[in-house]
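Reader question, answered in our methods column.
A reader sent in the components of a multi-part assembly and asked whether the whole thing could be modeled at once rather than chain by chain. We filled in our standard form and ran it. Here is what they sent:
COMPLEX SIZE: two components
ENTRIES:
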Amino acid sequence: MEGANCPIPNKHNEQIILGHGSGGKLTQDLIRDFFFPSFENQILAGFNDSGIIEWGNLSEEYQNCIHRIAISTDNHVVWPLFFRGGDIGRLSICGTVNDLAMVGAIPLYLTAGFILEEGLSIHTLENIIASMKDAALEAGIEIIAGDTKVVEKGKADCIYINTSGFGVIRDNIDISGANAKPGDKVLVSGTIGDHGIAVLEARGELGFVSDIHSDISPLNELVSNILNVSKNVHSMRDPTRGGLATALNEIAKQSNVCIEIDEIYIPVNPAVNSACEMLGFDPLYIANEGKMIIIVAPQDTDVVIDCLHSHKYGKDAAIIGEVTAEPAGKLLMRTSIGSRRVVTTLSGELLPRIC
Amino acid sequence: MEGANCPIPNKHNEQIILGHGSGGKLTQDLIRDFFFPSFENQILAGFNDSGIIEWGNLSEEYQNCIHRIAISTDNHVVWPLFFRGGDIGRLSICGTVNDLAMVGAIPLYLTAGFILEEGLSIHTLENIIASMKDAALEAGIEIIAGDTKVVEKGKADCIYINTSGFGVIRDNIDISGANAKPGDKVLVSGTIGDHGIAVLEARGELGFVSDIHSDISPLNELVSNILNVSKNVHSMRDPTRGGLATALNEIAKQSNVCIEIDEIYIPVNPAVNSACEMLGFDPLYIANEGKMIIIVAPQDTDVVIDCLHSHKYGKDAAIIGEVTAEPAGKLLMRTSIGSRRVVTTLSGELLPRIC
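And here is the structure of the entire assembly that came back:
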């Protein structure tokens, strides 16, 4: 698969050298030639130690209905760098955009911090940056500050990317993992496990060829649509590392409620199911990068599901369960054969460097 | 020197394993046992996908005189992790605090993103976190969001830390690398090169034993004091990677002015000078982590120098030159023997992984 292995620069390719991280001329060349053309915007062009946001303009834009700011950070160390449906560049934008969206924020600005391994091919870096640019455009965010460090060959794995995000939360929004209430419905925006299995396939660890694509997507537009049709969304979370089971466990504990889900309603791509069966994995623990859990008051379930189904990133959404009072802090699953079992948080490591 | 080499965990030490980056139970344990106790605050305790800042409270605190927000990001890959005068933890806080302070912002919140190498001793991580906590307290900032990833042994170098920062800029402040004007005076807040040489010594590359301490310090209080006594500070920059020469070149280019400095006025610790002479380095290019350049209108030079001298991080401050019109974009230095030469931006790499 293209790019599944660390691209080895040949004599025709330029490579990253330690000098690109010196802070001097070579760093400036890298910024001028690669980062600026892709991420160009007025704030970045200020070329100061920090990007400066004109809050005055923002608050006008949002008509003084914003008094909260959301801030998040995420390191991206996925391996391999490229896989079917995405790459570390798209992941680095969507991961942080989604973290902001999950607290009901409108993502506006991201920072990008690169750790490059000496010897990384410039061509690979260009492809990753192009992918970041596309994802940033799709998500409607701007990259307003950055940093590049270079470490010696063997001290990283081609490239690691940190993105940190800045978003604003409208005053009438109150979304938190602590807000789930008994009676609420539990929705998931689509099939689970696609990202983890796509990455595993790119590693050559699947043992067969599938057409599974990673689901990496920016969910902020979908979230915005949902919050426009319902004022009764209580919790949202994107089930990334640790998968659906871990994210639902977190909400059950934070809200001190029980979450009960039905195995038969959980959407899983048949190819993902087959892969999981062969490898002995449970799709409930496999990472997703373009899916979200929505916990909503029962009277709004239909409008939210309709809203999900009308968006490309929510077309396979399903109601998978509900919130109950007891046993508090637990995730229960009714299995396809009718029994009920406790589903715990992921313990140990399933798939290292999945995001 | 203690900690100069990657601490090798022995059987009595707990180590970081891949599961600590799973997003599941082990990640939660790490956060609960190590990060939360050190970085505890109300926002972090929300335990959501993003930290949420109550802007309403902020804007009241600053009496509606704030309409701009500063955002910055920095990866820290310094090697070794510990050296005389500091470590990667203190660096990771001060680096980003100073980037915010250099645009005249009041730093308020940081995020922290960790990339840990499998096998890192938990004891080492504890020491680094403790150092971050101390520096955060000194700088008066809070860490409100975080992320931890673990990569396989040999895919990082113990620990890399990204911090991203959020600060606010009062309305009457306008500091930029583009604001230097002919006639302005050029000040530096203290001796240059201490950080770079201290790290070099910790690497065992100095060839003799010195008592040089890294200058890693949060400069936000000093900046606040300066901006209280002068409304005519035009540019500030911390000369980190690339050193004083590179930072002054950046300002000369951004402001389209010439900066002329006098070699004899540039404060250099004699031990740093000796080390540079032995190693063939120029202190003008050596990294600093607790120093700043201030470019100020001539009538305010005295109040700013007095203000610097009254603060522990500015006691060795000096006026080192002035801004002229021509040749625009250049840094000139009058040498100790009276000649004048152009000093360029650092080209190539002097000291990899210095910050």
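What stands out: The two ends of chain A are 19 Å apart (CA to CA). Confidence is low (pLDDT under 50) at residues 1-5 of chain A.
Send us your own complexes using the same form.
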